[in-house]
Design a protein that fits this description.
Layout: E1 2-6, H1 11-23, E2 27-32, E3 51-55, H2 61-68, E4 73-76, H3 83-88, H4 90-111, E5 115-121, H5 145-164, E6 168-173, E7 175-177, H6 186-195, E8 200-203, E9 209-214, H7 215-228, E10 234-237, E11 242-244, H8 245-256, E12 263-266, H9 281-287, H10 295-308, H11 310-316, H12 319-329
Parallel strand pairs: 1-2, 1-4, 2-3, 4-5, 5-6, 6-10, 7-9, 8-12
Antiparallel strand pairs: 9-11
Helix pairs in contact: 1-7, 2-4, 4-5, 6-8, 6-10
This protein binds nicotinamide-adenine-dinucleotide and thymidine-5'-diphosphate.
Length: 338
């Protein structure tokens, strides 16, 4: 199969490309604008000849059309992905996540691709109180500029399926962690700050709950949906990894082996969603997917990966990152978490 992967130089996209490059025969093309979150180092080690890389913006209709030509399928990861940045600059999220998705849908339809996977998030469902889980039938009720832009993209993808008959499949996953994650997100931020003995910013009281999943489990789910999912269907992807943020941070401090109390409570995120939790029984029942990682084994492996790859994160902690963390964390900004 000829497969176009957008955003393949980012965290999840690069893990997906790495997986398919080693376990499938698919011909892979990555389209990526290499924003602050995209990094060619994420694709290092993939054998030459297994991958074609196109440096382009998802909003550039001519470039996207050229990339879609001759493809059998598209998996769409490219996005602005960080909630805190969406609060600082919502417009960038509307442009890439909403407009960019429409540009891609139009190009995919024009090229006659057979399958189109929209990689979405549980955040489109909004926030839960302390009980219940999201099913695929839960209403879309996004609350941050990030999740609103992702919900807009999902609706455009569903409109393309309904109106034009494009074979769209949508996956909605919980919070990912694992290798190659940019250290603006909670888990890699905490690992690097703990390793460097820097304060770890916990928003509010730290009781907000996220449903964590190892990135490899997410990538295997997307692959399964790509190959066997029913067009028009939505699949939640979750691995029963619900934990309050404070528990995650404490577990990372234990794994890093620091005895210092680095936890620092800071002003809460505006509009902070309290809890996400996913019912992924459809994916398990209909497509036979199940997670391979537990949160315990996955977190331990992730801490090990960051310990063993200082050259990767050393390069990532560059000027743009330092500027962002100064803006986001103010006086708390330091080296690793800022
Ligand atoms: P990421 O920020 O690590 O990577 C995003 C990639 O998209 C980068 O390589 C970046 O260069 C590229 N990109 C950004 N704007 C672009 C543009 N205009 N044109 C072309 N490329 C562009 O994100 P991630 O965490 O790997 O997330 C990938 C996808 O998965 C996103 O769609 C996100 O919404 C979704 N998702 C993420 C999570 C999570 O926990 N990280 C959970 C569920 C769903
Ligand atoms: P994050 O990794 O940004 O993912 P998302 O906002 O998409 O869920 O945040 C995960 C949780 O951790 C969320 O409840 C916000 C919280 N958080 C902190 O407490 N401190 C931080 O510095 C960051 C980045 C997140």
């Amino acid at each position: 199969m000829k497969l176009l992967v957008t955003g393949g130089a980012g965290f999840i996209g690069s893990n997906f490309v790495r997986l398919l490059a080693s376990e499938s025969e698919h011909e892979l093309t990555v389209l990526d604008a290499l924003t602050y979150a995209g990094n060619l180092a994420n694709l290092e080690g993939i054998p030459a000849g297994r991958l074609r890389f196109v440096h382009a913006d998802i909003c550039d209709a001519a470039a996207v059309r050229a990339c879609c030509a001759g493809q059998d399928a598209v998996v769409h990861f490219a996005a602005e992905s960080h909630v805190d940045r969406s609060i600082l600059d919502p417009g960038a999220f509307v442009r890439t996540n909403v407009l960019g998705t429409q540009v891609l849908l139009t190009a995919a339809r024009g090229a006659g691709v057979e399958r189109y996977v929209q990689v979405s998030t549980d955040e489109v469902y909004g926030s839960l109180s302390s009980s219940g889980r999201f099913s695929e039938e839960s209403p879309l009720c996004p609350s941050s500029p990030y999740s609103a832009s992702k919900a807009g993209a999902d609706l455009l993808a569903q409109a393309a399926a309904h109106t034009f008959g494009l074979a769209v499949l949508i996956t909605r996953c919980g919070n990912n962690y694992g290798p190659y994650q940019f250290p603006e997100k909670l888990i890699p931020l905490t690992i690097l700050r703990a390793m460097r003995g820097e304060p770890i910013p916990v928003y509010g009281d730290g009781r907000n709950v996220r449903d964590w999943i190892h990135v490899e489990d997410h990538c295997r789910a997307i692959w399964r949906v790509l190959e066997a999912g029913a067009p028009g269907r939505v699949y939640n992807v979750g691995s029963d990894g619900e934990r309050p943020n404070l528990e995650i941070v404490r577990e990372i401090l234990r794994l890093v082996g620091t005895s210092r109390d680095l936890i620092t409570f800071v002003r809460d995120r505006p509009g902070h969603d309290f809890r996400y939790a996913l019912d992924s029984s459809r994916l398990r029942r209909e497509l036979g997917w199940s997670p391979r990682w537990t949160l315990g084994s996955g977190l331990a492996a992730t801490v090990r990966w960051y310990r063993e790859h200082p050259e990767w994160w050393g390069k990532v902690l560059s000027g743009e990152y330092l500027e962002y963390t100064r803006r986001q964390y103010g006086a708390l900004a330091g080296g690793a978490g800022g």
